[in-house]
Amino acid sequence: MRLYSYHRSTTSYRVRSALNLKGLAYELEAVDLTEGAQHTADYKALNPGAGVPTLVLDDGTVLTQSLAILEYLDAVAPEPLLLPQDPIQRAKVQAAAHTVALDIHPINNLRVVQRLKGTHGFSAEAAQAWMCHWMAEGFAALEAQLGDDGPFSFGQTITLADLCLVAQAYNAHRWGLSLDPYPKVQRVEAACLALPEIQAAHPDAPQNAKDS
């Protein structure tokens, strides 16, 4: 498999984490979002949405959108299972994951910041305030959803919710948002970062940061 990824992309971080946890071999292909590599004709032929990640399977099948990729990986390599089989637990995990992936991330990604600065005249400080405001709102909602019965979001095993959370926490640190008001989020982040598979997926890990 080949994963088209940008090291600081939180969506790419989620997929790298899942691939590592499941022990699946893959090659990394760097897509430098800051240089506009996602807008080249060759890349848009793979991913018309001009985003990352893009996962190309061994047979040439192309998958896009991190949550769709993660669900595919769970289906073909269910160990560890990132989405619980119990319907209630599955819904809770998905709700927490969606709080990050659908509520926080879409208004906090690079294209939004570039638009705010380039079209609407936001200063760097105003753009940072925008990012932190929406992350703070999202983390407050996420904090209320997380469980108390284990190191991870919902117990003793890592799930899709954790992969979304730890990636968004990285973005919070980058933009200077304190996570002190969210002790459960901090607990989950620490549990995730203790895992070697998550460490290897981290944006600052040498094998991922080489595309900077």
Automatic annotation (TrEMBL):
The keyword Isomerase applies. InterPro entries: Glutathione-S-Trfase_C-like (IPR010987), Glutathione-S-Trfase_C_sf (IPR036282), Glutathione_S-Trfase (IPR040079), Glutathione_S-Trfase_N (IPR004045), GST_Zeta (IPR005955), GST_Zeta_C (IPR034330), GST_Zeta_N (IPR034333), Thioredoxin-like_sf (IPR036249). Residues 86-212 form the GST C-terminal domain. It is an enzyme of class 5 (isomerase). The keyword Isomerase applies. SUPFAM superfamilies: GST C-terminal domain-like, Thioredoxin-like. PROSITE patterns: GST_CTER (PS50405), GST_NTER (PS50404). One of its GO terms (biological process) is glutathione metabolic process. NCBIfam families: maiA. Belongs to the GST superfamily. Zeta family. This is Maleylpyruvate isomerase. The lineage of its organism: Bacteria, Pseudomonadati, Pseudomonadota, Alphaproteobacteria, Rhodobacterales.
